[in-house]
Every structure is written in C-alpha cells, then in structure tokens.
Task: structure prediction
Amino acid sequence: MFTVKWFDFCITCSNFKLKSTIMKTILYSALVVLILSSFTSDNARKIPSVDLKTLEGKTVSSSTFSNDGKPIIISFWATWCSPCKKELNAVAEVYDDWRKETGVKLIAVSLDDSRSSSKVAPYVNSKGWEYDEYLDLNSDFKRAMGVNNPPHTFIVDGKGNVVWQHVGYKDGDEAQYIEVVRKVIKGEKIEH
Result:
C-alpha cells in the first residue's frame, strides 16, 4: 500500500512538473509572439484614412497619399506655430535638392481650425512652398496620427508605412529627416 501511494505521488509530481514545463513553454512562446507582433505593428503602421481639404477646398482622403513608391514626409504645422514655420522654411531651402536626390515628397498638413484657416493659403503662397498642402480643420487626421503638438513630422516609406516620427523642431533637424529618408530608400533599419 505504501508503494502504491508513493508511486501515485511520484506520477502526480512528474505530471505536475510536465504540466508546469508545458505551461511555461506556452507562456514564453506567447510572450515572444506578442513582443514580435508589437514590433511589426509599429513598423507597419499605415497612414489612416481621413478626409482633409486642399487649399482650394476640395476634399481628399489621406489614404490616397502616394509618391510612386518613394518616401513621403508628412509635417503637421499651424500658422500660429513659430517652430513649425521655421521647420517648413528650412526644408524649403533644400527641398529641390532632396527631391532630385531621393524623390521624396513633403505633405504639409495645417492644423489651423476654421477661425484661422483663412491665413494658411496666403502664408503658403507668400513663402512659395512647393509642398502638397492640406487643411485638417476638425483635427481628425491629427488625432488619427497621434499628434499632440505641432510641429510633428512623420516619414512614410514607399509602401505607405509610417516608419519614423519626430516632435518639435530646432535648427538643423531637417538634416535628420533627409538621413532617415536615405535609409528608407536603401532599406536600412530606422532607429527611433
């Protein structure tokens, strides 16, 4: 009788150890899958589909943003935001060179609301910017992209995946933008 109980106890212990090992393996595997999927989803985040207005008042969906397989820079800005204007003016000075070298397109999305949106076109025209300009009058695109404060700049690869972002602007930040664009074109890993 003692042997049977001892034998039953040993079987229970070994089943417990086996079950414990299996459970640990399952949990570790699930954790690895979760971690890997979070990296993949961050790197493969697409531009959300939101309606914006052109400076002429035409409605355009952000899902139509494309650049023939080349990178896109999306810059959120506002006429009341001094760092935003400094950023876009600094990029304007080198934009032609960037386009010739990389084919990059810049899309500037104004966050001016209905009270100040009438200032956008005159400001853009006075600066001679050659960017694609859109108005996000209700801040729908701003919310969908997770923008809190402008300037907020995103770089999108040729497949429409958001691969990098930067908040704020200080003199010289535009050099970092073109470096990231070059890496995107070469297929190199982008550090955040």
The first strand starts at residue 45 and ends at 46. The chain has a mean pLDDT of 85. The two ends are 67 Å apart (CA to CA). The first helix runs from residue 2 to 43.
